[in-house]
Amino acid sequence: MKRVIGIGGIFFKAENPQKLAALYERHLGIDFGGKTYSDFQFQEKEKGWTAFSLFKHDAQYFDPSAKEFMLNLRVENLDTLLEVLRGEGVHVFDEIEDGDYGKFGWILDIEGNKIELWEPK
Fold this sequence. Notes:
Layout: E1 4-14, H1 17-28, E2 37-43, E3 47-56, E4 69-75, H2 78-87, E5 91-92, E6 97-99, E7 102-108, E8 114-120
Parallel strand pairs: 1-3, 4-8
Antiparallel strand pairs: 1-4, 2-3, 5-7, 6-7, 7-8
């Protein structure tokens, strides 16, 4: 069974996400379009994107991790993978989100880093 098939995104906290996004847009050419989220399109074996997203410094989306960043990793079969990871003793969150972009689940690594697992639609 395949597990991770790519990086889905890199998310981190900022004191002022809008200002930082504008700086990245101006200096690095990353098109945020007035938002705090951008994506890099690709088409290799599959069509998709890698997200680059800035969150407010007090955002709770990374909780319970105290880290300032969170990785989003693309997976092929989220439900099966989470079941396997639970069996391997990995801390798996009970919540699974199924939305417009696909299915999301979360784990904590042994250093308390929250990792988002994403099965794209």
